[in-house]
UniProtKB/TrEMBL annotation:
Organism the protein comes from: Penicillium oxalicum (strain 114-2 / CGMCC 5302)
Family indicated by similarity: Belongs to the class-I aminoacyl-tRNA synthetase family.
Record EC number: 6.1.1.2
Annotated GO MF terms: ATP binding; tryptophan-tRNA ligase activity
Entries under HAMAP family matching the protein: Trp_tRNA_synth_B
Keyword Ligase in record: yes
CDD domains: TrpRS_core
Keyword terms: Aminoacyl-tRNA synthetase, ATP-binding, Ligase, Nucleotide-binding, Protein biosynthesis
A cellular component term, taken from the record's GO annotations: mitochondrial matrix
Top-level class of the enzyme under EC nomenclature: ligase
Gene3D superfamilies, per the entry: HUPs, Tyrosyl-Transfer RNA Synthetase
Entry protein name: Tryptophan--tRNA ligase, mitochondrial
Length: 380
């Protein structure tokens, strides 16, 4: 990533906790969604893979934004959120572990504040229309476009300039991983979503979905609205151990991330050993002090202040004082989420299964409306 681009992202990441350009409100989205097939009302879709309990970066960058969209949405807006478990199969999974992760991810969506009375929440694999539409979209998807996507290259730890002409790439690549963006497009288009909340690093996949929707519409008529990206205004949360890389579960050190279910003691320990530097003062300088700046950025999510204001408020304080305050603020914010999560995971009444079934039925009904239009247009 070049320095000018990185600086631009830093400015967006830390401007009082918001992007410099305003996020479209739901009422704004309403006027922009004229291409919707749902009577002009916006349809918002997003999903998360089941990799167990989400970490702080997942929450601040996506899940908390989903809850905000839900709570601010005008009447009639469709909100659809999915545990995209079919996507998890692009790499081998142990069945028992995947079942556990699916349940943990679903419980987390409810714990952070998604309301099944307002949002449709479901497991992707329980709505067969997703896979059916993927096959249909595969008939119009561009192999050349897919070969230029970065997802399969990063998963296989290959250089970004890797092509299918290289024998070692072809030997490692599997069709499911290569066609991952087609399934992602199907996830969005089967619900005729008009808006998709995504992080900046997912913009490429949404562009493929838009391209595929246009390709299908050109051949078979205007079935799909062209979805628009709602780029999250949240600052990206970086690894506590490698603060120049984003927080991720793929990091070998569990101390590099904070899970939403971590206890206050665990959070305190992880923040205490977070990588910073030897300078005694506190300044916000992502380029030269990424570790300290990451802690300040995390704190800005909860304080409602810009990073510069936070750094000024800690003028003369020690790094220890900063870390203790960051740990306390995270622990306080996550306390209710952790309690709700533990309650749902320990529930013996079948509540989670009931919510999942309700969500799957609603999602399947919505998807079947789309599939009837698709089949009719194609002569099936």
């Amino acid at each position: 990533m070049s320095t000018p681009f990185r600086q631009g992202i830093t400015q967006l990441r830390c401007a009082g906790g918001q992007l410099s350009r305003p996020r479209p409100t739901i009422s704004t989205v309403h006027t922009q969604a004229s291409n919707s097939s749902h009577g002009g009302k916006p349809v918002i879709f997003s999903g998360i893979q089941p990799t167990g309990v989400p970490h702080l970066g997942n929450y601040l960058g996506a899940l908390r934004e989903w809850v905000k969209l839900q709570n601010e949405a005008e009447a009639g807006t469709k909100l659809i959120f999915s545990i995209v478990d079919l996507h998890a199969l692009t790499v081998p999974q142990e069945a028992r572990q995947l079942r556990k992760w699916r349940k943990e991810a679903f419980a987390t969506l409810l714990a952070v504040g998604l309301d099944p009375k307002r949002s449709t929440i479901f497991y992707q694999s329980e709505v067969p229309a997703h896979a059916e539409l993927m096959w249909i979209l595969s008939t119009v998807a561009s192999m050349g476009y897919l070969s230029r996507m970065t997802q399969w290259k990063s998963k296989l730890q290959l250089p970004e300039d890797t092509t299918l002409e290289q024998a070692d790439a072809r030997a490692q690549l599997r069709l499911g991983l290569f066609s991952y963006p087609v399934l992602q497009a199907a996830d969005i288009l089967v619900h005729r979503a008009t808006h998709v909340p995504v992080g900046e690093d997912q913009r490429q996949h949404l562009e493929f979905s838009r391209y595929t929707a246009n390709s299908f519409n050109h051949l078979y008529g205007s079935i799909f609205p062209i979805p628009e990206a709602q780029i999250s205004p949240a600052k990206r949360v970086m690894s506590l151990k490698e603060p120049t890389s984003k927080m991720s579960k793929s990091h070998s050190d569990p101390k590099s991330r904070i899970l939403l279910t971590d206890s206050p003691t665990t959070i305190q320990k992880k923040i205490k050993v977070a990588l910073t530097d030897s300078q005694p003062n506190i300044t916000y300088d992502p380029a030269h002090r990424p570790g300290v700046s990451n802690l300040i950025e995390i704190l800005s999510h909860f304080e409602g202040q810009s990073c510069e204001e936070i750094a000024t408020s800690f003028d003369g304080a020690s790094l220890r004082a900063l870390k203790e305050h960051v740990a306390e603020r995270i622990s306080h914010h996550l306390m209710e989420i952790r309690e709700r999560y533990e309650s749902m995971m320990g529930d013996q009444t079948g509540y989670l299964d009931a919510v999942a079934q309700q969500g799957a039925e609603a999602a399947q009904g919505n998807a079947q409306e789309t599939m009837r239009m698709v089949r009719d247009a194609m002569g099936l």
